[in-house]
Amino acid sequence: MNRNLATTYSSSLLRLFRVYGTLFAGVLIILCFSILRPDSFATLDNVINISRQISFLVMIALGATLVMAVGEFDLSIGAMASLGGVMAAKLAVSGQPMWLCILLPLAISLVIGYINGWIVTKFKVLSFITTLGMGTILGGITFWLTDGATIFENIPESFRYLGQEMWFTIPILSFIMLFLTILFWYIMSYTPFGRRLYAIGGNEAASRNAGISVAINKNLAFALCAVLATLTGILMASRLGSAQPTSGDGLFLPAYAAAFLGMTSFKEGVPNIWGTFVGAAIIGILANGLTMLEVPPFLQDVVTGSIVIAAVILQKIGRDSS
Amino acid sequence: MNRNLATTYSSSLLRLFRVYGTLFAGVLIILCFSILRPDSFATLDNVINISRQISFLVMIALGATLVMAVGEFDLSIGAMASLGGVMAAKLAVSGQPMWLCILLPLAISLVIGYINGWIVTKFKVLSFITTLGMGTILGGITFWLTDGATIFENIPESFRYLGQEMWFTIPILSFIMLFLTILFWYIMSYTPFGRRLYAIGGNEAASRNAGISVAINKNLAFALCAVLATLTGILMASRLGSAQPTSGDGLFLPAYAAAFLGMTSFKEGVPNIWGTFVGAAIIGILANGLTMLEVPPFLQDVVTGSIVIAAVILQKIGRDSS
Amino acid sequence: MLQVRDLDKRFGLHYALSKISLDIHSGEIHALVGENGAGKSTLIKILTGIYQPNGGKVFWNNQETVIREPKTARKIGIQVVHQDRQLIASFSGYENLFLGISYPKQKLGLGIRWGAMKKEADQLKSKLGIQLDLRKLAEHMSPSEKTMLEIMRAAMLDCQLLILDEPTAALSDEESELLFELINKLVAKGTAILYVSHRMNEILRLSDRVTVMRNGKIAGTFSTKEMSKDTLVQLMTNQTSSIKKQMQKTSFSNKENVLQLKQVTSKDQKVKNVSLDVKQGEIVGIFGLAGSGRTELLETIYGTRHLKTGQMEIQGKIVSSFSPKHSLARGVILIPEDRRGDGLIVDMSIRENMTLSTLSEFSSIYNIKNQKEKTAVRTWMERLQVKATSSEQPIKELSGGNQQKVVFAKALLSKPILYLCDEPTQAVDVMTREEIHQLLKDQVSHDSGVLFVSSDVQEVLDISDRIYVIHEGEIVAEFENEAVTAEQILQVCYNQRKQSDV
Amino acid sequence: GSKKDTKKIAILTPYLSSVTTNQMVELLKKESKTKGWEANVVDTKGDVGQLVSRMEDVIATNVDAIVLVSTDPNQVKAQIQAAKEKNIPVFGCDSGYIEGMAMNATSDNKAMSKMITEHLFKQLGNKPINLVVLTHRPHPGVLKRTLEFDELRKKNPNVKKVIEQQVNVPGPIENSRKQMENLLLANKAEGSITAVWAGWDEPAIGATQAIQAAGRKDIIVTGIDGNSQAVNLIKQGSPLVATVKQNFSGMAEIVTKQIELVFQGEQITEKEQYAPASLITKENAGK
Ligand SMILES: Nc1ncnc2c1ncn2[C@@H]1O[C@H](COP(=O)(O)OP(=O)(O)OP(=O)(O)O)[C@@H](O)[C@H]1O
Ligand SMILES: Nc1ncnc2c1ncn2[C@@H]1O[C@H](COP(=O)(O)OP(=O)(O)OP(=O)(O)O)[C@@H](O)[C@H]1O
Ligand SMILES: [Mg+2]
Ligand SMILES: [Mg+2]
Q: Is residue C248 part of a domain?
């Protein structure tokens, strides 16, 4: 029947909207900026520019997504990133080889993240409070390492390589970001480990009863999250050529904003890697475009907040009828 | 049987621990500080001092608790508090009567909070992302109202009354805090409204089937939360005699720390008013005691974080055996 | 094969199991029966490593074994379908099937071979003869589909002992038959079955031996051949059953309508063109095969599902506002199918749950009258014999059947004129089931009406005055419950299905 | 630079919510307007990583000049080079100078710290000194002041005790007030605290309020910045006895003038230019 066809058609359009709504919103934002600032926003240079700018947010938000996938939160990611940058910079200043400057902090953070998970799973403590406490502790350690001051003197040139260099006119940072996104997308979607993480997040008791080692998998998710946060911090220090004791703190809320925005995309209601990527991209593009449009600072906030809310609402349109 | 008696005894002790564990931790902290600094910590003056210092945190955390009770989050409380202080100060500077300086911001925040709730319930958007967006918008508005500067010139003396005066040598702030805590404890425990909020947080579908208007009650929880945050902001401005555009932002994380700490007390796993109070008190007492002990700044963080984690672990001890 | 000796389990101070001893031989179907809260599920949870016992020993193939976690149980060959569904809502049927077992992996690398996984699952599906769209997410499956999925999952791995905790509670007769076939196939291979059910007919028909539990203790193990329904019930309760069924026929033609639907269609087309009526004092049964839209029909009447066209009258008044709240105000209540998902707040106490929909009766706007509330709750707990330590016990600690009783008490508290009952007696023991029937009959004698949905034809026949048969959301037949038989009703259903298949 | 007639300048800072930074930005905006330039302000709320990104954005939009306000230029080294390659001059205002920038106008943090610290020690005379230090070391300017202060206090033999506290940002007034309240209760004896040295004015204000509320007469407070709330307190004769007023209008004026020179195609020789700071005490407050 004709009517049925129409219904089918419109309902599959709605379905598309529900799944890709946030992505559509992102495209819409890009279109707007491109029309308003064709000469500066819609340029290849700027695409590269944005891809580098969002790289930190994407990386740290990937970690947040892993922990959210098992139904927990890690509020220490900001502090972890700051500490990571500081550790790497201190090592670099003290003349250690580059690989050690990167791997040692990553190894340390792996342990710290695992401890986060261990406290949560062993004592059944809410992750919210555990990681808040851990974040405070890490902040103290960072402060102790730096005396609160930015580290920038005597940082060797090689330390800046990853953060500042390009390959084929594309920043290395952008490559790293893309590589990690694809890697974790693969892990989460196509490996048993990823499926287990999602199962735990979906129904912990059922997963345990099905024979999944809930504790170990959760601990690993926390450990990976900490490693990603630390990597973000290290790369940020490399990019700035200096390590501030609070450099990562500002990433914490945007990271969760990205992950939650992502939850409205692709797999509804489930934290997912590409969703997080799109979420981070939207946040990054908004900041970039609004600066280019020279919107006054207070209006930028109002616009950003409104667009984020609008983007998620947009995606719910027609939900009832489906 | 003797063995049984012993089991009974120890198991009821464990039960006590489970319910009051965090409270015990709090008492332990107080004992430690009292022994280490009997002449300054364990004094009536200091009790009064602490009661005033925690008043802001308690008030704003009460609001967070309400929203958590219905299973949602409000991340805009910090921005709401800042805006509240700024609005009140602007009104005071413009010569409005005191009651208007207080009631108008409260009324405005009631509407804003209700909108938060409305977006969440109407469009089924995650409250996390909605309120994050709203917080950004509110931050922009505050900035617009103040041009980013602190408001302090021409604030009338009467504006400072609530924040700075005492009744019977006890700060008015402490009275307000206690009054609100008792009020909301009563509301949450002894009124149908409170019961409904908890029911919604427990199982939304079942609550709806039981004839509860889920949307309206949730919206009200958000509205009350915003009002409490605004009140906090106003009182903070009154206390400082000035309104900074970011004064409330720093309260956001501690408020949730308090509420989550509180969830481990009294009613296990359920956000509850006295739990939040105890949580806020622990955070406040730690800051107070550690400053008095003149612990170096970085160690303060490490100690605070560790104690918070230890407090929640303590309370889980013996959980398995029950 | 499995020997249990002197098993104890304590919750707080309360013994849920004491000195349980039980033997299960390979290749037998061993039934486990007992009142609600007798401890059946607890025993199963110990055998599958979810709980640890406080005393006693378990021997598996003559070796003492400690089942420390669910993983251990699965490894040694104990598979289980729990009373509460254990699925990941956001996962598809396929993914749920492979939960906790090793996925088929690529030769090189770590990736999952989705193709192989699907093939394996589909093979199993056709082997078991189960019809189920495995691509669907678990959250979109109906209770019966979820059960079938769990049964498939248990059958995925080779198992020596399969434990089924009330598997048929949410299944229709047809699906139950499928399950029985499957059970017989497994038994033929030497698998032992531990079967928990409140449906005595199934027990008598299926099992070789039956163990009766009473109050956390074993009342005895018997050969099923020597058992009858009455003796079983007697063993379970330790008293002779007194409830006598009798059908007295009344004429309803002169009574007023409590509910009348005229060509009601729901927005999502799950309910189509339904016209029906329920008269005062009448119990009207609705029967249909799984997925025929019975739940949806009740939800549309109750207001949780949107109505598109048609007209609804309650007590002769045309209804214009649809929501659970309005329905309750009109005196219409729903006993939902999924009691944990839609009926109860599991973290709250019995008291708080029971009075939830009638809170205003026990309170003014600024406070709740505690004494009044407690008295009412206690009264109903006694009347329905809810087995609990006190009215303050959280719902999640109650046995399945006792949870259902709380749902019922909540409904009864609101003194409704129309009951919409969706599988109200699932998971409820025989005695309680009779009680619930009796309760409903008592209620209708006060001029209220009941719309009663059950997957059990016999139950529908036992209780209803009139029966509608529903198929794909449409009413296809109506019977006065006089001379009609179960076969006749089922016949209508199957005929309809054949027609729509063509 | 761009070919358009109106020159565009971008003003970037992470600290727009700080009173003094805000003051400077406002002045820069006003000055630009009178010169007929279009000024665009970008604030990153304390986030330096963000600042880097936003700087790249304005470079991409081809502004004619960039002004960094209250920012450590070491953290945007690469971006300064990128701007240089596109011929966009980068000016510092209260920031610092590094290779590649056009110039920086500042009041020397070190000098200011020296000025106020010496004043403080002079006030305290020859008695034993017990100090509370309220600071926020992550802020580069405040750090410089604190380090200079550390040098000076070590040289002063009268300094017996130093309690350093980190002030939380955002919310420095409320936070420093609380910390001071606690310290006062912990040190009740007369002379157990004789002075508070604050890294900038907001904590000085919080500490002053706490001292006033406790009714302690034996403690004096100093700040740095000269924000008007602090100047007000000094005028009233509160425990806050002095601050150093940075010449923000001076800095903004210098920068504006230098931008104009660059737009006219001239070279800047003086890379670091100072707008001298002045000590504010009760005697000259509010004049
Ligand atoms: N987690 C728990 N905490 C406290 N008590 C519990 C818990 N789980 C079960 N119980 C109690 O143990 C007893 C046995 O419960 P169980 O679920 O085993 O009964 P059952 O025989 O399966 O009943 P049903 O037929 O209703 O499912 C009940 O009294 C129940 O209240
Ligand atoms: N949330 C949902 N999303 C999508 N489909 C659903 C959902 N709930 C039910 N369905 C489908 O709707 C149809 C009717 O389901 P439902 O189970 O409610 O009918 P029923 O007659 O009550 O049968 P049952 O005996 O299974 O309860 C089924 O095909 C079912 O798979
Ligand atoms: Mg059971
Ligand atoms: Mg159904």
A: no
Residue type, C493: C
Q: Is the CB of C337 under 6 A from ligand 2?
A: yes
CATH 1.10.3470 fits A28-321, yes or no: yes
Helix, strand, or coil (residue A54): coil
Task: Decide if C250 is inside a domain.
Answer: no
Ligand with an atom nearest the CA of residue C89: 2
Neighbour subunits, A (≥3 Cβ pairs < 8 A):
B, C, D
Q: Which residue range forms the structural domain that includes residue C146?
A: 2-237
Cα separations (Å) of D53 from A50, A76, A174, B52, C79?
8, 24, 14, 42, 56
Q: Does residue C230 sit in the same domain as residue C323? A: no
Whether residues C205 and C342 share a domain: the answer is no
DSSP state of C92: B
- CA-nearest residue, atom 8 of ligand 1: C397
In short, whether C295's Cβ falls inside 6 Å of ligand 2 is yes
Look at chain C and report how many structural domains it folds into: 2
Ligand 1, pocket-test mutation among C10, C36, C42, C344, most atoms within 8 A of CB: C42
What residues does each domain of chain B span? 28-321
Q: How close does chain A come to B261, measured CA to CA in Å?
A: 7
Structure tokens at C77: 């060959």
| D241, burial (CB in 10 Å: exposed 0-12, middle 13-18, buried 19+) | buried
Distance C393 CA to ligand 1 centre (A): 12
From A5's Cα to the closest Cα of chain C, the distance in A is 15
Q: Are D171 and B244 contacting, i.e. CB atoms less than 8 angstroms apart? A: yes
pLDDT in tens, chain C (502 residues): 888 888 888 887 778 888 889 999 988 999 998 888 888 889 999 998 889 998 888 998 888 888 888 888 888 888 888 877 788 888 888 888 888 776 666 655 566 777 778 888 888 888 777 778 888 888 888 777 888 888 888 888 778 899 998 888 777 777 788 888 888 888 888 889 999 988 888 888 888 999 998 888 888 888 888 888 888 888 887 765 454 445 555 666 677 888 888 888 888 888 888 888 888 888 899 988 777 888 889 999 998 888 888 888 888 888 888 888 888 888 899 998 888 888 898 888 999 999 888 888 887 877 888 888 888 889 888 888 888 888 888 898 888 888 888 998 998 888 888 999 998 887 788 888 888 888 888 888 878 889 999 888 888 888 888 889 888 888 888 888 787 888 888 888 877 777 765 4
Distance CA C32, CA C212 (A): 6
ipTM for the complex shown: 0.84
Minimum CA distance residue for ligand 2 atom 7: C140
